[in-house]
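Can't paste images in this forum, so I'm doing it all in text. The chain is below; anyone willing to post the predicted structure tokens underneath?
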Amino acid sequence: MVPVIALQTFWRTSGTYLWNKFRSEPAFCAYYEPLNEVLFDQPAASLQQKFEDGIVAKLGHPPLNAHYFAEYPIEAEGGVRHFMRRFSYEHYALAETDRDEELAAYFAYLIAHAAGAGRRPVFKFCRMTMRQRWFASNFPTCTILVVRDFNDTFRSYLAMAEKSMDFLRIMFRIILKNRHDPLFAPIAFHIGAADSHGLTEPEMRKTANKLYAAATRSKLCDVAFFFWATYIFEGLTVADEVFDVDLIASDARERERITAAFRQRFDAPFDFRDLGKSSGDAGEAVSPGAFEVVRETLRLRFGATAGISIPALAAATRHLLEGLI
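Text version of the structure:
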């Protein structure tokens, strides 16, 4: 079986840019955000209408030739077979040996759908976080870890919130849904969600919204940093290539290296000269408490981070990651 391609990204890290490169090549079936909740019940007509209404420009994404989810086998009544709503918010930390037969069946269905069309499946993930190693253990995978400067990523969250595209609010909800998992307990305590026991689904959503609304910019930065750091460290343990958008945009030799590597791996003529550069603005102040939260989470996840090799990355990104080891 030819390995599936997993683009391990997070929101606002330029993952859509890379996904669209794969989508433009007919050999690939490039699935956008396979854990997005719209895949539970949205009909194709609704997704097409959002596309026609300008959702791509609102999100600041590169021009697309079809709506985001056009590759999916969407049912006539809406949604994708085997998708469950819990995939979007729950069980964000899975070990390689953990069993989630429903999630595995969903991915197997999408892989078979792509294979049936004679195309290689590409998954552009935003919500795998600490499920990346589980995925790589359950499916033959070529993993591309997409990394972007944290400060640019965080400021993009703030800008999107002003357009009612609130990724930070979603992060608070994810923390609430996973607060009883030991890997999420430190960040739940950090934002004041540790004592939220016995909540119904509406109460949980209301509590997450309340915590989000009361959060200072510093606290929002801490939450964003938790997700940014954990998805990168998890990704480094399985990555076959690291696609550092800032390094590729600013360093011609790295751009040539990754272009040649992709050509060899995927037999596709990708061109990354149109990749935008980092703003280079001064960094956000991640609190010492947030660093401790992430260190504790990484300790629980990996035992020790000393064995995780940090590759050549843009200076600001490498500095933040090395500060966690």
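The mean pLDDT is 94. The two ends are 36 Å apart (CA to CA).
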